[in-house]
Structures are given as structure tokens and as C-alpha cells.
Specification:
Elements (H helix, E strand, L loop, with lengths): L28 E9 L4 H18 L3 E8 L9 E8 L2 H13 L1 H10 L6 E11 L17 E9 L4 H18 L3 E8 L9 E8 L2 H13 L1 H10 L6 E11 L7
Antiparallel strand pairs: 1-3, 1-4, 2-3, 2-8, 4-6, 5-7, 5-8, 6-7
Helix pairs in contact: 1-3, 4-6
Length: about 260
């Protein structure tokens, strides 16, 4: 499994994280976390991460990959913080979260930041494992203006995940690059109850939203893509559901 990156900051979150199975404990482990923020509390949420929590996570062995907020209202703009962590393993993740939760400095920060009320309504955590064709989340980082990120989730049709992976590995990644999209990391969920057998989760980067629209149009009309799609689906469609969320990096994200 590829190691995505080692960045100098670490991320924050709330609560302990369970780990499920020995198979899921093989590292590194990536954790995609989504915070549903209470109305009007996003400034307090971002300030707590920016000023305190990222440093505390670094102290407890968690590695920052990136922080984003959704761009579009339908996806939770202004109401969600989405971020990706790297852990050495699932066991290490559990130990880090336990130490973080017990840290007196974190407890003091949380108490003071919630003096005007709670900040987070709900936390979602999804552990991920990189595919064999995954790229680096750092691809293209630091080159010019902040980019538009796209988080895409594919639910494969029954028994079709291996075929979907083969299409990405052999065709789709190269075609994305051909049409100006930057391939970042590609994952499968680590746990069976979170879609390990049928789900592909990946990140793309675009120069901006307009470039994303143009890239997708060019890709979908590309005869090479149409040929690859039709050949891969001769025995049935590979995807049952596709979701796309556009993201923008927050100011304290190392990945922009």
C-alpha cells in the first residue's frame, strides 16, 4: 500500500475512534472525517482547528492530509468541515484518539471554545485503504492559485468492484490526466459495513470549477473513454451510484 504523504501538521477531531478487525489494522490507515457544524458555529469550528487542534493532533501522532469545506449549498457549504487524516495503522489511530481525548490541553480548549454553545452536531468517520493505483494527495500542491477539489464516491454494481478498479487502473486515470484533471488518492473503505466490497472513494483536483466542467465534458465525449466504457460494461453496468462533492481548501490546510 502506498504512503500518501507526511506533512508537518496534524488534524483534530472529536471523540474516540473504534477499530474493527485485524485486516483493517494493517497500516497506513486513512480516515475521512465529516463534521456537521451547528448553525452559526463554523467560525468557531475553524478557529479551534486553526489555533489549537491541528497542533494537538500532531502531538498525538496523527498526520494532516487536508481540510476542506463543501463549495455548494446542497453539499453543506458553511455547515460541514471535511478532512483526511493519516495514521500508521488502525491500532495507532485508536491509541492517538484516546490520548487526544484525554489531553488536558484539548479538554481546556474544547471547554473554552464551547462557552457560547456546542459547535458540532454530528461527526462521521470513514476509514480508508489506498488502491494499488492510488496517486499522491500532494500532486500539484503549491503550484499557483488554490485549486478546486472534487470528492467522488462510486458504489459499484453487485460483484463489479474489481472490474471498476480495472477500468480506472487501465484507462480512466490516464484519460482524466489527458483532460486536465489531477489524479489524487483512490481508496476503498476499510470496513465491510462501510462498503469495503463495493465502494470506491477518490479525490481529483482542478484548476477551478470552470476547468472542472470543461474537463468532464471533454472526458465524457472522448472516443477513447466511450470505447473503454462500452468494453468494460459488455456484461452490465459497473456503477450503481455516483456522488460528487466539490470542495475548497480552508486557509490552514497544508494541501491546497
Amino acid at each position: 500500500m502506498k504512503k500518501l504523504l507526511c506533512l508537518p501538521l496534524a488534524l483534530a477531531a472529536l471523540g474516540a475512534v473504534p477499530f474493527a478487525s485485524a485486516a483493517a489494522d494493517a497500516g497506513p490507515a486513512y480516515e475521512l472525517r465529516t463534521y456537521h457544524v451547528l448553525p452559526g458555529r463554523m467560525p468557531a469550528m475553524l478557529a479551534r482547528f486553526r489555533d489549537h487542534t491541528v497542533k494537538l493532533f500532531e502531538r498525538h501522532g496523527m498526520v494532516n492530509v487536508g481540510y476542506w469545506t463543501p463549495t455548494d449549498e446542497k453539499d453543506g457549504a458553511g455547515a460541514k468541515l471535511i478532512y483526511l487524516l493519516e495514521h500508521k495503522s488502525r491500532e495507532a489511530a485508536a491509541a492517538s484518539w484516546k490520548a487526544f481525548g484525554a489531553d488536558p490541553q484539548w479538554q481546556d480548549v474544547r471547554k473554552k471554545s464551547e462557552a457560547d454553545g456546542k459547535i458540532v452536531a454530528k461527526v462521521e468517520s470513514l476509514f480508508l485503504k489506498t488502491t494499488d493505483y492510488s496517486k499522491l494527495m500532494t500532486a500539484g500542491n503549491g503550484r499557483g492559485a488554490p485549486r478546486a477539489f472534487e470528492l467522488r464516491t462510486y458504489v459499484a454494481a453487485d460483484g463489479k468492484l474489481a472490474d471498476l478498479d480495472a477500468r480506472f487502473r487501465n484507462h480512466t486515470l490516464a484519460l482524466f490526466a489527458k483532460h486536465g484533471m489531477t489524479n489524487l488518492a483512490y481508496f476503498h473503505p476499510a470496513d465491510s459495513d462501510k462498503g469495503a466490497a463495493n465502494t470506491l472513494v477518490y479525490f481529483l483536483a482542478h484548476a477551478n470549477r470552470e476547468a472542472a466542467t470543461a474537463s468532464w465534458k471533454g472526458f465524457r465525449e472522448d472516443p477513447e473513454w466511450l470505447k473503454a466504457r462500452d468494453a468494460s460494461e459488455k456484461n452490465g453496468k459497473l456503477t450503481a451510484k455516483v456522488e460528487s462533492v466539490f470542495l475548497k481548501a480552508v486557509d490552514f490546510s497544508a494541501l491546497k
